[in-house]
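> run fold Long-chain fatty acid--CoA ligase
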Amino acid sequence: MTKGIGNWLKKYSEFDPDKLALVFKDKRFTYSELNERVNQLAHAFVSLGVRKGDRVDALLLNTNEALESMFACAKIGAIFVPINFRLSVDEVLYIVNDSGANHFIYDERLRPVVDALRQKESKLIDYIHVGSNPHEEDYEYEHLIEGSSTEEPGYDISLDDIHLMMYTSGTTGRPKGAMLSHGNTQWNAINCINFMPTHNTDITLTVAPLFHIGGMSVFTTPLFYKGGTVILDDNFDPKSVMQKIQEEKITGLFFVPAMWQALTTVDKFDDYDISSLRFCVSGGAPCPITIIEYFQARGIPFYEGFGLTETAPFVSLLDAKNSIRKNGSVGKAPVHTDVRIVDPNDRDVPPGEVGELIVRGPNVMVGYWNKPEATKEAIKDGWFYTGDLAKFDDEGFIYIVDRKKDMIITGGENVYPIEVEQVLYRHPNIREAAIIGYPDEKWGESIKAVISLKDASSPFTIEDIQQFLDGKIARYKMPKKIEVVDALPRNATGKILKTVLRKEA
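> ok
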């Protein structure tokens, strides 16, 4: 009897078979249809030699095949490994070799990378092609489904079994495979539907990439757990998003801050009927206060969330009731997750003091794939050490101060870049801002602002920034250098790559 997340589709296919489950472009699948396709793919995987615990790597866009593959792996106890489709061939090869996969699914639009991958040495045996124009040796995805049974595979899956391996974004060093169990994903879903006003009538639009834990599990997997509807889009276009909200009556959205920022630039934003939206969540990186205020001013409940790949991802959420009163906070932890903020000696720090945020709960990953030392360093006595600096206020609300590695120490004073960046975002001509440290013989480190402008035709100087910040932050937090760029470097999940900026500095 399947107890894993694949059982969700089976249950809803029996309970509400004609309910719309998944939409991708002109393809619309009910729960019954989706469950049958997933069963067929699961049987096809078994016929190709995929066994419990085997990794199935995937280079896929946000298409129905991505979610079908994930659920098919779940039904037979295999581990689905979604790979960032923006990676170079050598970066993809690293994940393929690190995961030790024999089977690889890919989208025809990504064939150039896969053709180059074929020339590299790996353990890959079978390639499964999605779309037209397959390589002559490939299996065709739809052919595999058409030739397989629709019966339930019937594997006995435990909630402790791993079903998903997501490679961390790798902003420093090589990415690590975070092993997430069926239980991690299920308890994350329970946390989400307990803490957000989620109903089985909800419809979400997933444009954030499914290789990112936010795209996969902020709304997508929780809505399947609840029996709602997931609409996928494989291309983020702000105007198209607004049209889809209006046409499909989207009720909940998750985006990273860069995507929310792009939405605010849509021409005639207020002409779209987005009254169906009941809640929006930002996560993946700190969201500029100006963006939150933009949506709140239009009566759209805007939640600020915090999570990590390793926590599946839900750690905390600032709910709509407190979103204005506690602006800048990431809220509180959900029912089934505990958080602490500790000093270097693992002692709890009092409210107002900064320490490292640590997390415990059934949503915390099993560990890092084939990296026992890294796992041991990250998880101690059941607590996951996030590497994020945070503080509690007097009411227990969490404020993320910065990444430990991003903190700047200048003249013995700690400077948290987020604090300065949030003020800079209020400047009328600053579109993006990043604060980094650079070596300084006198102060140890000094502060540099890297910014992009809304109107690049006007010159912008360090004096302009210092004048704007004067009186808003302490003098020692003032940038001493400025660099104006066209755009800040970001990884595929929208996080600014400060490692790149520091290297250039």
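The chain has three domains: 6-19+29-157, 187-403, 407-504.
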